[in-house]
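Dear V.,

Thank you for sending over the compound details. I've combined the ligand you provided, flavin-adenine dinucleotide, with the protein sequence from our construct and run the structure prediction for the complex. I'm sharing the raw inputs here so there's no ambiguity about protonation or stereochemistry in the SMILES, which I know was a concern on your side last time.
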Amino acid sequence: MDRNTSERQQVYAWGRLQPRAHVIVPAAFADEMVAAIRASDKRPLLCRGLGRSYGDVALNGGGYLLDTARADHFLTADWETGVVRAEAGLSFDALLRVCVPRGWFLPVTPGTKFVTLGGAVANDVHGKNQESAGTIGCHVRRIGLARSTGEMLDLSVDSPLFAATVGGLGLTGVIVWVELKLLPIRSATMDVETLAMARLDDFFRLSAESADWPYTVAWVDSLARGPSLGRGLFMRGRHADAGALTPHGRKQIAVPHVARHLLNRGTIALFNYFYRTRPWATGRGTMHYEPFFYPLDSLSDWNRLYGRRGFFQHQSVVPMKNAPETLRSLLELSAEGGEPSFLTVLKVLGDRPSPGLLSFPKSGVTLALDLANRGDGTRRLLDRMTDVVVAAAGRLYPAKDATMSGEAFRAGYPQWRQLEEQRDPALMSDFWRRVAADAA
Amino acid sequence: MSTDLVVILGATSAIAQAYARRRAAAGVRFVLAGRREERLKVVAADLVTRGAASAEPLLMDLSAIGAIESAVETIHARFGPPQEIVLAYGILGEQTVLERDVAAAQAALDVNFTSAALWQLAFLKGREATQPLTTIVIGSVAGDRGRRTNFIYGAAKAGIDIFVQGLAHAYAGTPARFVLVKPGFVDTPMTAGFVKSGPLWSTPDRVATDIERAVRRGARVVYTPWFWRPIMAVIRRLPWFVFRRLKI
Ligand SMILES: Cc1cc2nc3c(=O)[nH]c(=O)nc-3n(C[C@H](O)[C@H](O)[C@H](O)COP(=O)(O)OP(=O)(O)OC[C@H]3O[C@@H](n4cnc5c(N)ncnc54)[C@H](O)[C@@H]3O)c2cc1C
Ligand SMILES: NC(=O)c1ccc[n+]([C@@H]2O[C@H](COP(=O)([O-])OP(=O)(O)OC[C@H]3O[C@@H](n4cnc5c(N)ncnc54)[C@H](OP(=O)(O)O)[C@@H]3O)[C@@H](O)[C@H]2O)c1
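Below is the predicted structure of the protein with flavin-adenine dinucleotide bound, written out as structure tokens.
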């Protein structure tokens, strides 16, 4: 075993495109997170949570990477009011295990529970209930932020630095702890309804008809073309009134490292066909929250299925008035691209404002799809898709993006300069170097 | 029946915390011994949030041999007899430094062996004959064969191995039980200087799962993860002419 404290280690983002060399600084307690940013020298620092961001928001090639996931202590919890304060490294997975038996749930959750509080706040994540609940930032009450000046700040909702930190891509300081207001539930079970979508219009119709379902999302068969473009399944759910408050289990199936590039046109076509047409695919029922919110979490390292060269995700939002036309062109483009997307997801986003300055969601429709990396062709396809989004007054989600240009980013997020002003000079990411540095 | 009392020596250790979090869910009471007050308070609050009935920090240098007996008396007086003791503190040290610095080597041996052995004697001395007590001691695969890269640490862990074997023998047939845990490479602050990639590296959570299972099943020795048992069986048996050439 080699001891190499200062030696760099190769780190991948979730998309596994290109590893970058970092000096890893581990933190197991809050005091070590504070010390790390105070001690930072000329080399830039960036925090990393559980590395579930696809592109480069959590990479800082050549610099320090503060590994926060072990600093995961609960600091205070009031189970009467559902207000919990914990170190930023606490995962949603661990939080659910503790809060569900006590009748509380995450107010907002992304499609995986393997994210940290700090990472969730830094990307201001949204979930299937975005229309009613907004983003995670809408439920954060206070943030403990350490700055390289040596200050340890206790930020409340009305502070400008709070706004910059929510969705601040880890650039305003080290988030040391987060105070979150949870959602009361009576059961760990979900009432769920799944409906078939024959075409894109059905998605808009079903979304409009689902106002009394807090959670909605649609899965689209990326291979459907022409009149059946947008074919898929529309899922909606709500927390059930009856059922035990049993948290999720620990079982995970590992993807063997030999399973390279298992996701190709043939397997995806097969999967899509069975997924859509299995007799139990549509209808009403109940299920535990785990398969409802986190269908992919039962496979650990599923991102390896895309093979050695990794994969991209495109997630965009476009205003409702441009949505039907834009989605059609995006879906058509991605289908032409050769490699179909394994997971294509559509969802209507509402206008509940986030306190975050650079929050991704805005009123309209969001589309997310994965594309295996086939080199320049895939990058060109993603660029064309980005152009379509920008032309439709939309924007891409930094947590997923690995390719957009600085212009595309700045067009989507004109307020980016305010974040640059609030950025802690000790912090930097590969993402920010890519989209902001040239204009700053 | 009042809830179990679990005493953790070295409560800020990553492995100890992972194990304690599992025990917390059962609503036990904790005494958390260690030498960093702020961190002990953080661990205490965390365990109470996760379901512990209580968690009381006990601030002390655990290798302070002269303070061990009185600390055990204090614990008995304040909280009653423990049902479970976890010895998790330890230091790895830098072998090359320890070889040249006799005082530092002594400190390492005091932390990893002498004090750890004496804590057990002190707790057993205060125990009533009928009182069930499980002692969980974290040893190491480093104690299975002396190696050039860590034999001072390894010797202490080997010593504690023999010590726990002896206690288990002495207390066979009584409700006093002993579990010796032998982790391999675990990704914790103790190994912060290592490059942690490869299939041999494990996590505190994995180790904690194995400890919990070993306690439940009444195992006396547990290698964690399991594959260290065959690996160490081979390493122990390697003939000298092969072993001497290995850079491990
Ligand atoms: C299967 C899957 C499904 C997903 N579904 C959704 C979804 O539905 N909605 C959605 O919004 N997102 C979704 N995501 C994206 C994911 O929620 C975000 O990327 C999230 O931020 C990842 O959290 P993390 O802890 O892994 O952070 P990382 O990816 O490690 O880091 C993300 C950002 O947070 C910063 N950061 C992390 N910790 C701190 C800290 N302590 N202080 C300051 N900055 C910090 C990093 O610097 C980086 O900029 C999904 C991802 C996957 C893999
Ligand atoms: N990590 C591995 O690969 C590995 C492998 C085999 C065995 N082990 C054993 O596992 C046990 C737990 O270690 P870990 O991996 O969880 O590492 P860790 O997180 O670094 O824990 C070690 C703990 O011991 C404490 N400690 C050391 N000397 C002390 C003293 N004199 N008084 C009070 N506390 C003291 C440290 O406290 P401070 O923070 O105050 O220093 C620290 O909390 C140790 O016995 C170790 O030898 C570990």
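A first observation: Residues A 14, 46-53, 57-58, 68, 88, 110-112, 115-116, 118-120, 122-123, 125-127, 169-170, 174-175, 296, 399, 429 surround flavin-adenine dinucleotide (ligand 1) (CB under 6 Å).

Warm regards,
I. M.
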